């Protein structure tokens, strides 16, 4: 494991290394900056990673052609945690490793729930409410859906939803969605809204919108 010979340099890293923080949820709740990917390696050994997009570029120099790679990768445990990152290097393997490590540093814990008025099953299988994200020319809107719909989105959004543990959702995208990186970042921005949007405590939570199934809501 990569964290075996790791010497933490940040406050959060030292708390994890000493065993005072034992879960990724606790680490994120401290609000301390996550600057060492080894923290994620230790707290989430079951984390999965996948390459979203590979961009290869070449340029002419006095010594000939030189290649460079720009990789976009996603990480997640398919149970509420997801991250997205990019990495560049002269070779593909180091670029992939950089992208995965950067995705770990950008990891978030999303809210999930049963936000579809057509469902009300009380299980955290979809989004708790409608969210949207916009990057470049791409706009993404994700809506809660009842059980059985699946991930009714484009392939890029589908990958991130799977990594995050969203089983059912409707997705709508506008703009130049063939720009895969912008599409992925817009989807990630939409998922991030599940934790950025404040839930009004005056809302009656016994309705099918939440039914007590929203995870990581802070207050129950």
Task: Please explain how this structure is put together.
The protein has helices at about 10-15, 25-30, 35-45, 90-105, 155-165, 180-195; strands at about 50-60, 65-75, 80-90, 110, 130-135, 140-145, 150, 170-175. Strand 7, helix 5 (about 155-165) and strand 8 (about 170-175) form a beta-alpha-beta unit. The chain has a domain at about 1-45. It is about 30% helix and about 25% strand. Mean pLDDT is about 85; it is low at about 200-220. The chain is flat, with a radius of gyration of 19 Å.
The Cα radius of gyration reads 19 Å
Main-sheet strand order equals 1-2-3-4
The low-confidence runs, each spanning 5 or more residues with pLDDT under 50, are 202-220
| Category from helices, strands and their pairing | alpha+beta
Treating each run of at least 4 consecutive H or I residues as one helix, how many helices? 6
The major β-sheet equals:
4 strands, antiparallel
Order of helices and strands: HHHEEEHEEEEHEH
- Which strand-content bin applies to the residues? 25-35%
Mass-distribution shape: flat
Instruction: Return the average pLDDT rounded to an integer.
Output: 87
Oligomeric grouping of the chains: single chain
Number of strands: 8
Percent helix, as a range, is: 25-40%
Distance between the termini: 37 Å
């Amino acid at each position: 494991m990569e964290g075996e010979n790791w010497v933490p340099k940040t406050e959060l890293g030292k708390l994890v290394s000493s065993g005072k923080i034992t879960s990724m949820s606790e680490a994120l709740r401290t609000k301390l900056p996550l600057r060492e990917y080894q923290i994620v390696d230790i707290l989430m050994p079951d984390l999965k990673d996948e390459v979203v997009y590979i961009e290869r570029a070449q340029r002419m120099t006095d010594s000939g052609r030189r290649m460079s790679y720009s990789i976009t990768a996603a990480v997640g445990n398919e149970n509420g945690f997801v991250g997205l990152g990019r990495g560049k290097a002269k070779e593909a393997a180091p670029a992939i490793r950089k992208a995965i490590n950067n995705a770990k540093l950008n990891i978030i814990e999303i809210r999930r729930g049963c936000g579809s008025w057509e469902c009300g099953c009380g299980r955290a299988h979809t989004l708790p409410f409608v969210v949207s994200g916009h990057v470049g020319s791409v706009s993404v809107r994700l809506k809660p859906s009842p059980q059985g719909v699946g991930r009714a989105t484009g392939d890029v959004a589908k990958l991130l939803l799977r990594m995050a543990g969203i089983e059912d959702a409707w997705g709508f995208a506008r703009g130049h969605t063939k720009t895969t990186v912008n599409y992925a970042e817009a989807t990630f921005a939409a998922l991030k809204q599940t934790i950025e949007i404040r839930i009004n405590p005056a809302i009656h939570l016994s309705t099918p919108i939440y039914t007590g199934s929203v995870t990581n809501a802070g207050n129950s």
